[in-house]
Amino acid sequence: MDVIEKFGNRVSSQALKDPEKARRLLLAGYRLQEKKLQFLPDRGLPSSGQYVARVVMKNIIQSLSEPENAAMVSIFVPGELVMAAGLTPYSVEAMSCFMAGTKCEQTFLRKTEEEGFPETMCSYHRVFLGAALTGILPKPNCMIYTNLACDGNMMTFPYLKDKFECPGFYIDVPYEKNRESVLYVADQLRKLKRFLEETTDRRISEETVRSAVDNSRKAAANYKKQLALRCAHDPVTSLTNELYALFMCHLMAGSETAVTYTEKLLRDVRMSPRGDGLSVIWMHIMPFLQEPVKDIFNYSKKMHIRACDFIADGFQEMHAEDPYEAMAEKMVYCIYNGSVKQRIEEAERLARITESDGAVLFAHWGCKGTIGASSLIKQSLEKTGLPTMILDGDGCNPANTSDGQVSTRLQAFVEMLEKGKEEKHA
């Protein structure tokens, strides 16, 4: 049993007996890790990776230690307004990732089962719900959620809103991608700004909102520049590092931190040589805990992730001049909203720009939209000549995957890509 597993067991046992003590223990571990990242950063990662690891760790600590200044959010909530309100994004998905990384998730998964939540529900939401039910997670200032992409939001947030007796705001995003939908969502975002002013008792100036949206535009421009360079540059990365980028394009969108991250990322890409071996685009979230996937991708100089559709979509350009319409545009035209056609087109675009050899679609347990569309995505991409693997697994609950099967399938996919590349250059 390693140190992390021992620590996770202590947190788990305390969570059921004394949740306040368990939270303090969890915070102590995270603060120790923050110090390690500050003074002993991961030298295997470039500057942007080291930077984002510290930022994300700080965010998790603030969510747990200063919940009165945190907004519980789902991943697609406009970070720009959360940043403008001066709140810490207290993310369901991110917090579950960290608890799973701390190896204390099984206790919380069992807790949700006891409360009658279905096992087929997304494990990110189940871990978070279980932790909230034990009392280890604190009550936030408020919560903001949307129907966009994940149906787990529609169970988790209403349930916790009642449990915590917490003010909440719901953003309804229509399926149709048109001007009417953008205006409809923009009107809700103006109301969200007023809601945040009431819950924080702080005025949010229009200049602050516009500045946050302008930061998102800068970050998107930087991301676009580095993406254009990826066909000839392969910085070393890890699945965890790629996962952290989601903070920058969603949860902390609109912050100066996100701009700094993309500036560092652009610099790192420019300075990186073209790697040997193979390259892929990644679709959906990262199974950062799964050993055979880590073995293939982490710090690899032979298998490179050149782009992720989830991250690229988060850094999409916003064209509307009005800041609320710009944020609404980003939500309405999200590739996870509406028809699967846009996800396919985005994957094709990323593969073309980065000149990738193949694609991996991660079909996360409980994500019905991705699992249901996976065969169509694979067939469509392979018709264009892009070999595509559907990788079944669970991004947050290792118990739902078989390392042996995943390893065998990944190795076979790598061999297929190698053979295809040899034939192409023969």
Automatic annotation (TrEMBL):
Pfam families: HGD-D
Keywords recorded for this protein, A-Z: Iron, Iron-sulfur, Metal-binding
Keyword Magnesium attributed: no
Cofactors (names): [4Fe-4S] cluster
Cited InterPro entries: FldB/FldC_alpha/beta
Family: Belongs to the FldB/FldC dehydratase alpha/beta subunit family.
Name of the molecule in the record: 2-hydroxyacyl-CoA dehydratase
The species this protein was found in: Blautia stercoris
